[in-house]
Amino acid sequence: MSRRDSKVHFFPISADKADDELEITTVCYRPEGLEQLEAQTNFTKQELQILYRGFKNECPSGVVNEETFKHIYAQFFPHGDARTYAHYLFNAFDTTNNGSIKFKDFVLGLSILLRGTLTEKLEWTFHLYDINKDGYINREVREHF
Description:
Largest sheet: 2 strands, antiparallel
Number of domains: 1
CATH superfamily: EF-hand
CATH topology: Recoverin, domain 1
Number of helices: 8
Helix content: 55-70%
Strand order of the largest sheet: 1-2
Radius of gyration: 16 Å
Strand content: under 5%
Structural class: mainly alpha
CATH architecture: Orthogonal Bundle
Order of helices and strands: HHHEHHEHHH
């Protein structure tokens, strides 16, 4: 797999366009502690820069609330109503339970989902489905999803 094939694009950015932007311009948005995020995730510095640019493009304030998250998520699933699932997905990314997702929250979760170990992915998924945070996934969970 080439480096170009391993790029991660959460927001709709073509690989060629992203490459061109990186070659032509200096990265406009650079999250504080980029090296720290690189050490905490399974993303390269270049991938983090691309992800951050997409995040800031969709959420200029640098923070996404639940309604904005649902709107963005719905763009990936235009057929049907994904609001309920997006609500639980938002809660899984909102690890501080403050009603917002910062770039760090987003990229840490995305790193696990896309490149984490099997154990990390299972733990993250369990957290997603443990909707009442009691350490169990009950039958009622199926009704929510």
